[in-house]
Specification:
Helix content of chain A: 10-25%
Distance between the termini of chain A: 109 Å
Structural class of chain B: mainly beta
Number of helices of chain B: 4
Oligomer: heterodimer
Strand order of the largest sheet of chain A: 4-5-2-7-8
Number of helices of chain A: 3
Order of helices and strands of chain A: HEEEEEEHEEEEEEEEEEH
Largest sheet of chain A: 5 strands, antiparallel
Helix content of chain B: under 10%
Radius of gyration of chain B: 26 Å
Strand content of chain B: 35-45%
Number of strands of chain B: 24
Order of helices and strands of chain B: EEEEEEEHEEEEEEEEEEEEEEEEEHHH
Structural class of chain A: alpha+beta
Strand content of chain A: 35-45%
Shape of chain A: elongated
């Protein structure tokens, strides 16, 4: 009997544990307390293979620290104006997990603050469970970025703030482009504007975790000079005129 | 299954968003639990519930004849109300045949967009602001009876956190009334019975013990206001609002101890009751100091002085998150750092 158990143990060690693609939802249970801020660290199993973290249907609306994986931890912090009470999802994790991985996930340093105007700490329960993964074909929601300036940041220079929601898979990143002929770059809010004269159209692109995109354009607030508006057009006309003159001279020369 | 109506799962949602207010009475020692309720229904799921007349193809047993017509076909609008435009009132002549012929075309139910309708009561003529996931989605002006209705469309199916607040004639803001709602794709979700808590302010920030302090604000006309003055002993005083929804309580402070005190109020009308609204602090001391209304309406968390707390202020605070020497405008609890507590205070005072 003893030998039989040893054989099983050796067999279990010899063969890797079966893992499969799963989606895990991280939830908070506030009980009857209305909380408006939550911060925590989720410790993952050592061999966890995380593909994606999505915050689509999260009860946290504004992320101070979006769920971010560093080694075997996911840290997150966010707020919900007005607060919420009950059991709500915070984010989901897509990855390759073994059945026992779920039991090994544990929360560390959970801070939940009551919606009372002074940030009183209250106890909450956190849990992880399996859910069915859903597709997402809907782009992020329409949004309106705002240009602002404040003496306390960026030396009082103009900056851009933006945020939107995606109820399907959640926002993966934002990209900003200043001017029509420029490149989109991955940026975060608040974003210090490169063109402080505000004479360039600003394009903000929100991309969700499924790759759906939503672009919002903020028109330049100051009038652009004539050469900025028509410069390219003038150059093209001059090029065409130059070609015509050259062609005429060439024909004259050939005759 | 020809002719069978595809039945969706019963999606009538009757959600009770419970806001618990625990009231402690000291010597009388009674604790009360106040439940503020909003009703959430879905127009477009085929199930009829008050205040809907019908829902999609479910006409709730109604026909043109039950609605007082003599013939024709009745249908249901996207707002879940009867559409009797194809019903006929004939006196027995040729009119009815024409209408029955057209009945076949009226059968189709136009697919509704994903939308939500919010209705309830604020203050007479007040500005009501609806936040969708912390951003302003719509504003409206309440009627003279304090009733308001806001429709928003182009939503996606999913979980939303909606919040409503109102601003009275003096510029005082109510507390945020928040309700998470699961919006059904392709349907209209009705959120009714919203009852915004009263505004509140005092005429003095410090009052000499024994003098009166005026506690005032606005709610629904002719509603019963319960004002709580909270110190070591908690006092409850009731007042009735006037036709403009205003209330005033001149409270004799001789019963209060020297020191810091707080006051808050709630409103009740026809069996409906709000949660307690914002809390206002005042000091009972040796002199009278008038409260400036501008200071009363100023909002903690407003980093750029625009009298609002929104994404711009959040971004300024986020810039200073865990950085050294943050400005006082971002360090809301004055502990020398911007951390989750500052964001929590900002979230409490959020205006969108």
């Amino acid at each position: 009997m003893n030998i039989f158990l040893k054989i099983i143990a050796v067999a279990l060690l010899a063969f890797p544990v079966a893992v499969s693609a799963m989606t895990v939802v991280v939830e908070v249970d506030t009980g009857e307390e209305s909380i408006n801020a939550l911060e925590a660290t989720l410790m993952l199993p050592a061999n966890a293979d995380i593909h994606n973290i999505q915050n689509g249907n999260s009860a946290l609306l504004m992320w101070v620290t979006p769920p971010t994986q560093t080694d075997n931890t996911i840290i997150f912090a966010g707020i919900t104006p007005g607060g919420f009470a009950g059991v709500y999802p915070i984010f989901t994790i897509d990855g390759e997990f073994a059945a026992q991985d779920l039991e090994q996930m544990r929360f560390d340093s959970v801070t939940a603050l009551r919606d009372d105007g002074s940030g009183t700490r209250v106890p909450v329960k956190t849990k992880v469970s399996l859910i069915q993964s859903k597709g997402d074909t809907i782009p992020p929601e329409d949004f309106t970025p705002v240009i602002s300036r404040n003496p306390s940041i960026f030396d009082g220079k103009y900056f851009l703030v933006f945020a939107t929601q995606d109820k399907g898979s959640g926002i993966k990143r934002y990209e900003v482009r200043e001017g029509r002929f420029n490149w989109f770059r991955k940026e975060e809010s608040p974003y210090l504007l490169s063109y402080q004269r505000l004479n360039k159209d600003i394009y903000v692109r929100a991309i969700d975790n499924a790759g759906n995109k939503r672009i919002t354009v903020i028109e330049a607030t100051t009038r652009r000079s004539w050469w900025e508006r028509y410069g390219l057009f003038v150059i093209l006309i001059m090029l065409v005129l130059g070609l015509l003159v050259y062609k005429r001279q060439w024909l004259k020369f050939m005759q | 299954m020809p002719g069978a109506i595809p039945r969706t799962t019963p999606l009538w949602i009757l959600a009770l968003i419970v806001i618990l207010v625990l009231t402690y009475a000291d010597t009388k020692a009674h604790a009360a639990t106040i439940t503020a309720t909003v009703k959430i229904t879905v127009c477009g799921d085929g199930i009829v519930e008050t205040p809907e007349q019908c829902d999609s193809s479910n006409l709730n047993g109604a026909s043109c004849t039950t609605r007082g017509f003599t013939g024709g076909s009745i249908s249901c609008t996207n707002a879940c109300e009867f559409n009797t435009s194809s019903c006929t009132l004939s006196s027995g002549s040729s009119g009815s045949s024409g209408s029955s012929g057209g009945g076949g075309g009226g059968n189709g139910i136009t697919p509704v967009s994903t939308s939500a309708v919010f209705s309830g009561r604020a203050y007479p003529g007040s500005v009501v602001t609806l936040l969708k996931d912390a951003q302003i989605a719509a504003t409206t002006i309440a009627g003279t009876d304090a009733k308001f209705q806001i429709n928003i469309s182009n939503l996606s199916g999913g979980n939303y956190i909606f919040s409503v607040y109102s601003e009275d004639k003096k510029g005082l803001r109510s507390s945020l009334l928040t309700f998470p709602v699961s919006v059904t794709s392709g349907a209209t979700t009705n959120i009714s019975g919203i009852f915004i808590a009263p505004t509140i302010a005092t005429d003095k920030s410090e009052v000499r013990r024994g003098d009166n302090i005026a506690i005032f604000g606005q709610s629904i006309p002719s509603s019963e206001i319960t004002v709580s003055i909270n110190s070591e002993e908690e006092f409850f005083v009731k007042r009735t609002t006037d036709a403009a929804g205003a209330y005033l309580l001149n409270f004799d402070t001789s019963v209060l101890e020297i020191g810091q005190h707080q006051t808050k109020s709630k409103s009740a009308l026809s069996g409906e009751i709000t949660a307690f609204g914002k809390t206002v602090g005042f000091v009972v001391g040796n002199k009278n100091v008038l409260a400036e209304l501008t200071k009363v309406t100023a909002t903690k968390g407003d980093t750029n002085g625009d009298n609002r707390v929104n994404l711009v202020d959040f971004s300024v605070a986020a810039y200073w998150y865990k950085r050294l020497n943050p400005p006082a405008s971002a360090d809301l609890n004055s502990d020398g750092k911007v951390n989750l507590v500052d964001f929590s205070i900002m979230a409490f005072n959020w205006t969108g």
